[in-house]
Design goal:
By secondary structure, the protein is α+β, with helices and mostly antiparallel strands. It has 5 helices and 8 strands. Strands 1, 2, 3, 4, 5, 6, 7 and 8 form an 8-stranded antiparallel beta sheet that branches. Helix 3 crosses helix 5. It is globular. The protein binds a DNA duplex (13 and 13 nucleotides) through strand 3, strand 4 and helix 5.
DNA sequence: GATTGGATCTACT
DNA sequence: GTAGATCCAATCG
């Protein structure tokens, strides 16, 4: 499938320099495009989550500024990419004004362009599973630490809008966070097969595995 | 320097 | 429903 993105469709910094909840609510339906040399991969955003300020217990900025989360304190319209759980990168988009730590986590995409590259990177062929979940979509698009702090004005990564009318968007509590999951800051396109509807909010119910402590664990 | 826990995913029971 | 993989960053000493 060939997809042509016109330069004037790329979202500018003014789009991100607004309320995080507005940005997170408007991003579903937009397209994330990643260019790695001749490889172009793109997907339609179908699920997001908002992380807002040091007051938000689930936000990385909750305990103040650190070298890791410094990008969130920077100007809007930049990518905040971090590594977690030993094997997953997360893609966030910095929002609001410089100095205020807030970002939108991209949780799921619908593969649109460069699907062969995604299959190549993931080793998975089911298009519904290719970009479902924040760790999976970064793997499919080839996003890693080197994207941290990059401007979403391109050229390596950018977001653009569609001519189609905005899709209807539903909200629920956030996934995978222990505190703050009560806030309806997760936005998604309902009934989309690519939405990571699996195990909604079950993380909070999972006990911290005592067995993971050193004993007998070769690492 | 060592320890701890994490904005996850998958396979297995 | 549960456990294991996997490693970085923050925290504690």
């Amino acid at each position: 499938m060939v997809w042509v993105f016109a330069a004037n469709d790329v979202l500018g910094q003014d789009f991100y320099a607004r309320s995080t909840l507005r940005v997170a609510g408007e991003l579903p339906g937009m397209y994330v495009v990643v260019k790695e040399g001749r490889r172009v991969t793109a997907g339609k955003i179908i699920e997001t989550e908002a992380y807002i300020g040091e007051e938000d217990p689930a936000c990385h900025a909750h305990r103040g500024r650190t070298p890791r989360n410094a990008v969130m304190y920077g100007p809007p319209g930049h990518a905040y990419v971090y590594f977690t759980y030993g094997n997953h990168f997360m893609l966030n988009i910095v929002t609001e004004h410089e100095g205020f730590p807030a970002a939108v986590l991209i949780r799921a995409l619908e593969p649109v362009t460069g699907i062969c590259w995604m299959i190549d990177r993931r080793g998975v062929e089911d298009p519904n599973r290719l970009c479902r979940g924040p760790g999976n979509l970064t793997a499919a698009l080839g996003i890693d630490r080197s994207f941290n702090g990059l401007s979403l004005a391109g050229p390596r990564i950018f977001v653009c809008r569609d001519n189609a009318p905005s899709p209807c968007v539903q909200t629920t509590g956030r996934v995978g966070v222990n505190e703050g999951s009560d806030r309806p800051w997760r936005f998604f396109i309902p009934n989309h097969p690519g939405v990571s509807a699996y195990r909604m909010g079950t993380k909070a119910m999972r006990k911290k595995p005592e067995s993971r402590k050193r004993e007998g664990k070769t690492r």
